[in-house]
Recover the amino acids of this structure.
């Protein structure tokens, strides 16, 4: 046999690899679901403790067809979007301000470090005291939970891109604003996205906890109430909804992140 | 020992009907354009990669996997970042089950041989790339292989350090007289070091020339400026130039495809 | 491909080393003073915001109460049990899932899903499983801390440096040498990243677990103080939990500095890295 031209061989090998991964992944999803379903049906696990996948699906279908789920989704989504948007704007602004003014950076750095260590959820009762138990409290909680992650990562990005490229820019006598626009900002983008990713998933946790603690609506409330009425399928459906939302947000940010990979070889280079 | 009869072929990376006989104690260099499968050839000889057809024999016995009679100095130093220089140099011995004390003792000798005495307790990230490459070399020699395989070990070094290292490698080789298979893309490096230079084509890699280098040993850097040396360079470059151009065309084409897919 | 990037340290950065500490300290002191003065002059409501001195006074009273210490003990126990279980189970689990490429592919979607799920939302289920006692707090801490541990170890195993593995294979390393020389050291940094994240997750688990269903523990104490509008007590409680979390992080860092001594950076750079950046292994990097 004479060797095949490389161009012909490589894609098919790559194709096989991708397929293997996807196929095994699908098999894994199906396999676990089947075993789970069987285990509950055979009575190995009590269905009040862990519902069956089919029952969870039925609960979901019911919730969607009857429309009862939509107000809950709406309530949760409003809080998340409002809190996360505010946190993104404020967090990125905080981080970039730290890029413009060194003094400002030194002022905020200790607070950012404390905020990373401090368990934000422990401040829930204080926030309730300040803001009551309405929409305002929930949005503020989401904001606080997410904003520091975004600010920390943005500032880290600013510092990293400065360390790498600033001497180049300085040697070209670039002005402060030009440096910001051409060096610091684009260099920080991957970090900002990492911050947004971490902030987004923390924000979901915050919404749910807020709804657990004090609310009459939302997915978190639905999960909590269903739990009290032993409607396990509904609880699990709520969790699946959250998981799907978490995956979707993660996926969107990953896609955005990938777009910057083209000019960022470093991360994969040292493997 | 004789090192005889090599036939390796890899459909994917396309080494095409390579046949090479290397007598015991010879220093052989392989030059070729990037991507021609030089490194794969080395991996096959080491036993890390199995050829799809044909076989490699060492002293008459076929090679089926890595063995104690061969050792590679890798292209990137690939030192274990969490081990000190000394332990890295003795790592090959450690892998082969030599007790630590004995491995350390032997490693200490080699650290000295490659001129790194005093740095035994440093971690790789505290060493320059040149020093890491010396350690890489020491690690391979430490296991006392019959055949030393070297995969562009000096590629990452600056020009001056490289020339120094070439000289030191020749010294070490003169002391140990191992069979060496040395991969490089530097023509002058190949001639300066070797008894024999094998030129490979662009993909699929074939042997297009096999030149015995008849220069006196021990060699010094002056030899690089002699007419004889220049003649060898001329001859090898003449063969290699077309191959390098071909390889560049292949790379451009592959990159275009990659974008489309 | 290697790419050389100029990594110049600007003069400004070197000079600012001492200034960083100075500015940081004064930033915190300034806020505390402002808070105290504003509260004392009734510019802000004592009822809503308390004041540093009031919080200290409350703290001094709190530490004399037996109930404070028993709450502290309970929360610490919840943290320690859940955290240790999460590490003990999560590390081998992540390792085993990642060790075999195919097993990894099979379970990857579930890891990905769990990693994106706010695990604290499982609290109602956990109560269903374990009741309102301390077991449900162990469980929620365990679950929410374990997921990132498994994911980090999984990513760690899958990204072990193939060049080092090749070196070991070329020298014919036996399984035990391979494990000791490459796999375990290579995974350690992932273990510590996981250990750090797990501290944060465990603290959140304790807090939410106690908020959701508990009569005892620090978070439950805070919650009660919130209902009674005892602002100083509230602040002191939150502060105590923060200090506990900080101790947890410090402990992990201390062990890490010992275990990863080989990659210690030169002192000057360590001082300059004033900002603590949370890191996570990313599934999308695989």
């Amino acid at each position: 046999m004479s060797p095949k031209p490389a161009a012909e061989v490589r894609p098919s090998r790559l194709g096989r690899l991708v397929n293997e991964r996807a196929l095994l992944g699908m098999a894994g999803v199906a396999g676990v679901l089947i075993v789970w379903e069987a285990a509950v049906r055979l009575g190995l696990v009590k269905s009040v403790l862990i519902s069956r996948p089919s029952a969870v699906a039925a609960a979901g279908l019911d919730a969607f067809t009857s429309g009862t789920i939509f107000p809950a989704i709406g309530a949760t989504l409003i809080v998340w979007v409002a809190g996360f948007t505010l946190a993104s704007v404020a967090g990125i602004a905080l981080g970039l301000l730290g890029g413009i003014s060194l003094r400002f950076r030194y002022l905020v750095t200790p607070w950012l470090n404390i905020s990373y260590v401090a368990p934000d959820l422990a401040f829930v009762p204080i926030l309730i005291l300040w803001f009551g138990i309405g929409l305002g409290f929930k949005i503020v909680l989401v904001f606080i939970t997410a904003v520091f992650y975004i600010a920390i990562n943005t500032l880290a990005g600013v510092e990293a891109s400065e360390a790498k490229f600033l001497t180049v820019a300085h040697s070209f006598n670039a002005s402060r604003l030009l440096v910001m626009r051409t060096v610091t900002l684009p260099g920080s983008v991957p970090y900002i996205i990492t911050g947004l990713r971490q902030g987004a998933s923390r924000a979901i946790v915050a919404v749910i906890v807020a709804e657990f603690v004090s609310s009459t609506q939302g997915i978190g409330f639905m999960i909590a109430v269903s739990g009290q009425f032993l409607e396990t399928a509904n609880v699990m459906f709520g969790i699946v909804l959250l998981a799907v939302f978490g995956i979707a947000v993660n996926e969107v940010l990953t896609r955005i992140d990938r777009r910057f990979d083209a000019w960022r070889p470093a991360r994969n280079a040292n493997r | 020992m004789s090192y005889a009869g090599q036939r390796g072929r890899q459909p994917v990376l396309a080494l095409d009907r390579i046949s090479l006989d290397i007598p015991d104690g010879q220093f052989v260099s392989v030059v070729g354009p990037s991507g021609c499968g030089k490194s794969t050839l080395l991996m096959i000889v080491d036993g890390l990669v199995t050829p799809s057809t044909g076989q490699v024999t060492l002293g008459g016995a076929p090679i089926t996997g890595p063995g104690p009679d061969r050792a590679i100095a890798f292209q990137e130093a690939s030192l274990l970042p969490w081990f000190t220089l000394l332990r890295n140099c003795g790592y090959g011995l450690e892998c082969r089950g030599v007790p630590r004390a004995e491995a350390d003792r032997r490693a200490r000798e080699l650290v000295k041989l490659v001129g790194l005495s005093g740095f035994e307790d440093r971690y790789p990230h505290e060493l320059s790339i040149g020093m890491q490459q010396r350690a890489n070399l020491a690690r391979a020699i430490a296991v006392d292989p019959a055949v030393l395989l070297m995969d562009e070990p000096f590629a990452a070094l600056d020009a001056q350090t490289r020339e120094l290292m070439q000289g030191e490698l020749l010294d070490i080789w003169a002391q140990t007289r191992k069979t060496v298979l040395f991969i490089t893309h530097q023509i002058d490096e190949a001639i300066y070091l070797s008894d024999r230079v094998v030129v490979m084509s662009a993909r699929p890699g074939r042997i297009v020339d096999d030149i015995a280098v008849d220069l006196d040993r021990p060699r010094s850097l002056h030899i690089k400026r002699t007419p004889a040396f220049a003649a060898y360079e001329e001859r090898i470059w003449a063969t290699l130039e077309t191959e390098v151009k071909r390889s560049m065309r292949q790379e451009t084409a592959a990159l275009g495809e990659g974008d489309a897919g | 491909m290697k790419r050389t990037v100029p990594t110049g340290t600007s003069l400004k950065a070197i000079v600012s080393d001492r200034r960083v500490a100075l500015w940081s300290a004064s930033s915190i002191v300034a806020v505390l003073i402002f808070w105290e003065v504003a509260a004392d002059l009734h510019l802000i409501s004592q009822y809503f915001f308390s004041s540093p001195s009031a919080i200290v006074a409350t703290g001094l009273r709190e530490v004399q109460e037996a109930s404070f210490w028993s709450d502290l003990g309970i929360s610490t126990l919840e943290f320690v049990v859940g955290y240790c279980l999460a590490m003990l189970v999560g590390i081998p689990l992540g390792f085993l899932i990642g060790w075999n490429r195919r097993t990894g592919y099979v379970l990857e979607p579930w890891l990905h899903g769990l990693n994106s799920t706010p695990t604290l939302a499982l609290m109602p289920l956990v109560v269903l499983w374990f009741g309102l006692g301390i077991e449900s707090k162990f469980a929620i801490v365990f679950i929410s801390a374990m997921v990132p541990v498994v994911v980090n170890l999984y990513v760690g195993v899958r990204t072990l440096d193939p060049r080092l593995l090749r070196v070991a294979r070329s020298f014919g390393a036996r399984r035990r040498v391979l494990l000791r020389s490459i796999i375990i050291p290579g995974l350690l940094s992932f273990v510590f990243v996981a250990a750090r994240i797990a501290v944060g997750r465990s603290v959140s688990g304790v807090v939410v677990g106690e908020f959701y269903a508990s009569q005892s523990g620090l978070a439950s104490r805070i919650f009660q103080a919130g209902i009674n509008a005892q602002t100083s007590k509230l602040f002191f409680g939150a502060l105590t939990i923060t200090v506990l979390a900080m101790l947890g992080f410090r402990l992990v860092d201390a062990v890490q500095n010992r275990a990863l001594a080989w990659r210690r950076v030169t002192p000057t750079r360590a001082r300059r890295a004033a900002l603590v950046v949370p890191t996570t292994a990313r599934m999308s990097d695989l």
User: Anything to note?
Assistant: The CA atoms of residues 55 and 219 of chain A lie 18 Å apart. DSSP finds ten helices and no strands in chain A. Confidence is low (pLDDT under 50) at residues 1-12, 265-271 of chain A.
